[in-house]
Amino acid sequence: MNSTVGRLALCAGIGAFTIALAWIGGQGSQSIGSFSLLMLCALGAMSLQWLAFVPAAILQTERFYDLMGGLTYIGLIVLCGVWATGTESWSLRNIVISAMVILWAVRLSSFLFRRIHVAGKDGRFDEMKLVPTRFLIPWTLQGLWVFLTALPVLILLTDAGEPVSVGVWEVIGWSFWGTGWVIEVIADRQKSAFNANAENKGRWIDTGLWAYSQHPNYFGEILLWSGLCVSGFGQFEGAQWIALLSPVFVYVLLTRISGISLLDARGELRWGAEESYQRYRASTPVLIPWRRGSR
């Protein structure tokens, strides 16, 4: 009973934290009634996850988890877009950053959706999905993940001030995004092709971009979200600088929580006794290509 209450309290805390971020960052946001538009984005991100959790818990399936994450990103952008069309036309900057988020969400969520349907399951959820209150935690975390990751873009889209024309910060940020996007797409395709080859079954990938970084897809992910944040440096004011939490969160999430740390532990378990794997780990940068690894 205590563990159940504790899990529910954790989910409530995550939801409250998400709302607090929206309250702080939404000080300059457009409003709908008594709510800031940024606050409605936070409420929407959480509500969509909790609604999707219900059938997922009943069916004990994680097959639509990643897809729902992508759809939530798109839903928040659409929410901001529908409101903007009822007030004033969007600036070129807002159109570009919205397209970037939607393009990223469609590609990544569809990629992960296809991958889990080929694999049949995601091992991270094997035990978790059997206990509803445990299964609720990753769905709640996904709401925080979507909102906090997209926070710089949402702040820009909901800002009540006069839109800033495209300037040097947009050019720098969009260049980062484009570079990160290309790296992530190439890395994912190379790994998919590697795993599709029967000769590579049960092996780790160390070719293509993966010869220069052990996790090039994560490097691309961090770079593109950092770029979207940088693109707002000419617009952010006051509490809106809370947007800087986005790239920090993405970095910590992918390097310390659910990304590299989990994959490294899994790799050590599967191939740790192989000398060639240890050589790869020792000679290949962990994240940033061409930078000497820490191992």
Write structural notes for this entry:
The protein is mostly helical and 295 residues long. Helix content is 68%, strand content 1%. The protein contains eleven helices and two strands, in the order αββαααααααααα. The protein has a two-stranded antiparallel ribbon with strand order 1-2. Helix 1 (2-25) packs antiparallel against helix 2 and helix 2 (37-59) runs antiparallel to helix 5 (132-149). The protein is globular, with a radius of gyration of 20 Å. The N and C termini lie far apart (44 Å). The relative contact order is 0.12. The model has no long low-confidence stretch (mean pLDDT 89).
- Total beta strands: 2
- N-to-C span: 44 Å
Specify Rg, calculated over alpha carbons.
20 Å
Low-confidence stretches: none
Q: How much beta, percentage-wise?
A: under 5%
- As a percent range, the share of helical residues equals 55-70%
* Largest beta-sheet details: 2 strands, antiparallel
Order of helices and strands: HEEHHHHHHHHHH
Average pLDDT for all residues: 89
| Structural class determined from secondary elements | mainly alpha
Dominant shape: globular
Count of DSSP-assigned helices: 11
How are the strands of the largest sheet arranged? Answer: 1-2
